[in-house]
């Protein structure tokens, strides 16, 4: 009985001063503080190459028929990556920045539906038309947010048509450069 009272007294003292009943283990903690920065990114590239266009006669025995133009080309695509501040978006524009569309011809560039992850934007249904003297172009995709198109970027289709046969003149090969720009709306 004396032992039980003694044990009870020892336990009461241990509990009163807060000593654990189990073996005392030492612990320690530390912290590491760091920052995460997400840079603004606006990268764009054309993948593939456009086939050269030729305007010619439809062939023997087709006198009086319309001129023949090489079929539309859809061998290229746009790949882009974008990170942008909340509430902002970007547009992709197309403009002829070098060369002139021969007189009487029209070049139309359209984009397929963008694929990828994130807010890849919305295509402009009619694309952009370019003719001699009108090379400024405009939006082909709007509303691009933070995204990447990886290998599923929109296909670009280039279509050359005879706009006015009365104005078509013989020309040597004319090199055309189309520049695509990924920029914040209104910039």
Shape category: rod-shaped
Largest sheet: 7 strands, antiparallel
Backbone structural class: mainly beta
The domain count comes to 1
Q: How many beta-strand segments?
A: 13
- Counted by DSSP, the helix tally is 1
Helix content: under 10%
Low-confidence stretches: none
Mean pLDDT: 85
What does this protein look like?
- The protein contains one helix and 13 strands; from the N terminus they run αβββββββββββββ.
- The strands form three sheets. Strands 1, 4, 6, 7, 9, 11 and 12 form a seven-stranded antiparallel sheet that branches. The chain has a four-stranded antiparallel sheet with strand order 8-10-5-13, with no helix packed on it. It has a two-stranded antiparallel sheet with strand order 2-3.
- The protein has one domain.
- The protein is 9% helix and 38% strand.
- The protein has 187 residues and is mostly beta strands.
- The protein is rod-shaped, with a radius of gyration of 34 Å.
Short description:
The protein has 187 residues and is mostly beta strands. The protein has one helix spanning 2-17; strands spanning 41-47, 55-56, 68-69, 73-83, 90-98, 105-111, 117-118, 122-123, 128-131, 138-144, 147-148, 155-162, 177-184. The chain is built from 1 helix and 13 strands; from the N terminus they run αβββββββββββββ.
């Amino acid at each position: 009985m004396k032992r039980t009272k003694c044990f009870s007294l020892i336990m009461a003292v241990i509990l009163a001063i807060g000593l654990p009943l189990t073996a005392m283990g030492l612990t320690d903690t530390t912290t590491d503080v760091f920052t995460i920065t997400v840079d603004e990114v606006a990268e764009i590239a054309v993948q593939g190459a456009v086939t050269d266009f030729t305007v010619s006669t439809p062939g023997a025995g087709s006198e009086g028929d319309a001129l023949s133009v090489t079929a539309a080309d859809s061998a290229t695509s746009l790949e882009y990556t974008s990170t942008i501040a909340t509430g902002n978006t970007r547009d992709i524009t197309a403009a002829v920045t070098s060369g002139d569309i021969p007189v009487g011809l029209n070049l139309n560039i359209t984009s397929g539906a963008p694929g990828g992850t994130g807010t890849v934007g919305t295509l402009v249904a009619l694309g952009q038309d370019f003719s001699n003297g009108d090379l400024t172009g405009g939006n082909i995709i709007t509303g691009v947010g933070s995204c990447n198109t990886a290998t599923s970027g929109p296909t670009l289709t280039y279509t050359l048509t005879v706009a006015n046969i009365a104005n078509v003149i013989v020309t040597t090969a004319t090199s055309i450069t189309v520049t695509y720009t990924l920029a914040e709306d209104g910039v």
